[in-house]
Specification:
about 140 residues, alpha+beta, Nucleoside Triphosphate Pyrophosphohydrolase, 7 strands, about 45% strand
């Protein structure tokens, strides 16, 4: 696991198509093997929108047009000695679907358009569920 001595900035993209949301099954921490909004790290000098567009293309094969930020959260994990081993600040942006079919690439075990019925059967963290319910009445 890569460790940093500072918070790392990340982005996610909330993308809908035909009343389905684009999700990935994570390959790496935080929360490996759980379904999540796709995204990743922002490179130095890269805008949030460009980072989201790049990350979603790399992770899922989907081409998007990123828009405005919608939600910001932190992920902080500590080891048994209470030392911080991971600290991300993540900004989720709204995004429009442009093209492509979901394929798991890069940091994803799986990628899919998920409908409302299927969403309820997946292992998705509670904060993501709450965000999608509050902002989009999904599922």
């Amino acid at each position: 696991m890569t460790t940093h001595n500072h918070p790392v900035l990340g982005v996610g993209a909330i993308v809908f198509r035909d009343d389905c949301i684009l999700l990935v099954k994570r390959k790496h921490p935080p929360e490996p093997a759980r379904w999540a909004i796709p995204g990743g790290k922002v490179h130095f000098g890269e805008s949030l929108c460009k980072a989201a567009e790049r990350e979603i293309r790399e992770e899922t094969g989907i081409i998007i047009k990123a828009r405005e930020p919608l939600h910001t959260f932190e992920v902080i994990e500590r080891d048994v000695g209470e030392r911080t081993i991971l600290h991300y600040v993540v900004i989720d942006l709204l995004a429009d679907y442009v093209d492509g079919k979901p394929m798991a690439n890069d940091d994803a075990l799986d990628a899919a358009w998920v409908d409302r019925a299927t969403f309820d059967t997946l292992d998705v963290n509670e904060s993501t569920k709450a965000l999608l319910r509050e902002k989009f009445d999904f599922p």
